[in-house]
């Protein structure tokens, strides 16, 4: 199996991180820059859609990606980013994967709201805006979150659960062509999932220091999972974006 972890394009929240008095959206849309990034990513993945030769040792996807499955979180910025690629490729199955949402979940951002849990967008929002997306059974107009702010302990549990389910769904099986899976997801969840893969304590580095794996907007990271190994093939690749579209 190959996993391609792709962070969403720049969101309105990302774009306003240094704007005084800006109140973050609980489920932000893409900014104009984020839309341009998602379009550039989709164009690149379309150009590299097909594999030239499956037997070529191609650790940097110079000869194609050959994606077989695309998943997105149910947060607007990730789904919008994914949709550009799904529409460009045309025939790759596209599904929501609830558990690959950003850490914390959907919660109120106002100072006096104490991060109260919110509903998340209803099913009709995705049916209208992303009709290609296969949605979870039982997901209705009440929203997909409807829980308190996610604790740090629950974030690690969720990352391990996603990893186990990923391996169960898409791990290599005898007689099965290799699955090449794309996750359209989020920066901090990338950290949690990577720590789950590598069995690392979250952020804890040597000499009492902290660590972080940076993920730019619309960056691609690749992991090859086979023969009992997680191979970190590349992380935070952005060479498909023009210089003016590289943002954090």
Summary of the model, kept short:
The protein has helices spanning 12-15, 32-47, 76-89, 123-129, 152-170, 187-198; strands at 2-7, 69-72, 94-96, 180-185, 220-226, 229-237. The protein has 248 residues and is of the alpha/beta class.
Write the layout of secondary structure elements.
Layout: E1 2-7, H1 12-15, H2 32-47, E2 69-72, H3 76-89, E3 94-96, H4 123-129, H5 152-170, E4 180-185, H6 187-198, E5 220-226, E6 229-237
Parallel strand pairs: 1-4, 2-3, 2-4
Antiparallel strand pairs: 1-5, 5-6
Would you give an account of this structure?
- This protein has one domain (2-245): 3-Layer(aba) Sandwich (Rossmann fold).
- Helix 2 runs parallel beside helix 3 (76-89).
- Helix content is 29%, strand content 14%.
- The protein is built from six helices and six strands, in the order E-H-H-E-H-E-H-H-E-H-E-E.
């Amino acid at each position: 199996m190959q996993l391609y972890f792709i962070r969403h394009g720049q969101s309105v929240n990302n774009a306003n991180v240094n704007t005084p008095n800006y109140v973050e959206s609980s489920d932000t849309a893409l900014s104009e820059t984020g839309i341009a990034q998602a379009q550039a990513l989709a164009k690149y993945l379309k150009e590299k859609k097909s594999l030239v030769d499956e037997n070529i040792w191609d650790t940097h996807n110079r000869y194609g990606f050959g994606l077989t499955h695309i998943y997105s979180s149910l947060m607007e910025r990730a789904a919008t980013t994914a949709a550009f690629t799904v529409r460009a490729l045309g025939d790759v199955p596209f599904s929501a994967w609830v558990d690959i949402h950003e850490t914390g979940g959907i919660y109120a951002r106002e100072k006096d709201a104490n991060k109260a849990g919110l509903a998340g967008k209803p099913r009709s929002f995705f049916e209208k805006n992303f009709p290609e997306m296969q949605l979870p059974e039982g997901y209705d107009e009440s929203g997909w979150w409807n829980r308190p702010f996610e604790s740090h302990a629950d974030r690690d549990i969720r990352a391990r659960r996603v990893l186990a389910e990923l391996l169960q769904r898409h791990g290599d099986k005898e007689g099965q062509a290799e699955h090449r899976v794309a996750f359209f997801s989020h920066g901090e969840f990338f950290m949690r999932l990577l720590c789950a893969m590598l069995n690392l304590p979250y952020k804890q580095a040597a000499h009492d220091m902290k660590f972080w794996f940076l993920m730019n907007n619309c960056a691609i990271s690749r992991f090859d999972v086979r023969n009992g190994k997680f191979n970190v093939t590349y992380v935070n690749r952005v060479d498909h974006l023009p210089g003016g579209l590289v943002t954090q």
